[in-house]
Amino acid sequence: MKSFLSLLLALTALNTNLYSAEAGMPQLDPKYWASQAFWLILVFVILYISLSKFYLPKIKSNLDNRENKIKEDLENANKFKEQSEAKLKEYDLILDKAKKEVNKIHFDSKTALDKDIQSKKEIIEKEIEKEILKAQKEISEIKKNSISSIQNISENITADIIEKISGDKLNESSVKAAVEETSKKNLSKYL
Amino acid sequence: MQQFTVHKIGPEINIAGVDLSFTNASLFMVISASLIILLLFFGSKEKKIIPSKIQLIAEMFYTFVAKMISDTAGSKAKPYFPFIFSLFMFVLFCNMVGMLPYSFTVTSHIIVTLIMALFIFMAVTVIGFIKHGFKYLSIFVPSGVPAVLLPLITIIEIISYLSRPVSLSVRLFANMMAGHTMLKVFGGFVVSLGILGGWLPLSFSVALTGLEILVAFLQAYVFAILTCIYLNDALNLHH
């Protein structure tokens, strides 16, 4: 490190020797002081006037425009947000109302339908009962008829069979009595 | 030191026995001012809501300086915004243009910085007297100081106030000159050590160039912010 520093020092000396011809500070030479002052003031005044008259107001208006635009946009966005929230509330209200209505309609129609079904059921049940009674009557009549006709047929058949077998004609009333007796014994099984 | 020499460009202009010739210093003043005007011209030409790149740069400078002023000098300093903006941009661009090889650094001359500092000093003093009248002299008498120390403190305050233009101008001038001289010295090392040993000073040179760009910005910022602080003293008298 020390050797490096001494090397630096030696080189600095060398350098100052190299440029010794132009040593000294040109800054302290007053030859062009007046010229520098004059041109500085001239250039700076022109710069100042052009900046303050033309460019800075333009930039300022640009920045203000942007700020206003952003503010406006934000305000608009807020307004739209509020509007949409109000609309959403309205929509919710309408939805609630509609739901209630739907429930009501559903309930009403259900009760109406139930009543309808109930009354129709009753009517149909009455009709069915009537039909059943009628059918039962018919059946019992048919039974009675069939019993008497079966007795008649069986009397005839018995008379015929007896006639064919014995060749005699039996008394009708005795045949009838016999048939009736047997039929009373057996027919009840089938009817 | 050849980089700091001023030489005439074009014909000699002599007004009332004073040499006001156009020099390389004048040339680089004009170049710097033109660059600023070009930047602001293209930066304010289009009025886009979403700014283009150059518009963004111009607006960044604007808001940067505006914030600096409002932070240090408050809202009363608003009328002086164009002046401080021009000052900051001019010093910044002179410093930055001076970093280019073969260019001339306007701000490395004491006469240039001294004129700016003197103008600021005088303007601030005049503003202070206009705003506050003779009460402005109370800037030299800080409140809350024991009566024994008051004469001494007042003398110190007066000296520090009067040395403002010197400190302001020498700070900028010395920083710029020292930086460029150092770059030159290390550049000289590169040449004298040749291809074998020249790499070390070369790397130093590269690092120093980066540092000098930082210093160029920093000194412009310091110059502008000190102007704001002096302006604040003149506008808001509270000691």
Structure explained in plain terms:
- The complex is a heterodimer of chains A (191) and B (239).
- With 191 residues, chain A is mainly α.
- Helices cover 89% and strands 0% of the residues of chain A.
- Helix content of chain B is 70%, strand content 2%.
- In chain B, helix 1 (24-45) crosses helix 2, helix 4 (110-132) runs antiparallel to helix 6 and helix 4 packs parallel to helix 7 (199-235).
- Chains A and B meet through helix 1 and helix 2 of A and strand 2, helix 1, helix 2, helix 3 and helix 4 of B.
List keywords for this structure.
heterodimer, A: 191 residues, mainly alpha, 3 helices, rod-shaped, B: 239 residues, two-stranded antiparallel sheet, 7 helices, 2 strands
Short overview:
With 191 residues, chain A is mainly alpha-helical. Chain A has helices at residues 2-18, 33-166, 172-190. In chain A, helix 2 runs antiparallel to helix 3 (172-190).
Terminal Cα span of chain A: 141 Å
- Taking pLDDT < 50 over at least 5 consecutive residues as the criterion, the unreliable ranges of chain B are none
* Class from secondary-structure proportions of chain B: mainly alpha
- Summing up helix and strand content along with how strands pair, one would put the structural category of chain A as mainly alpha
Based on CA atoms alone, the radius of gyration of chain B comes out at: 21 Å
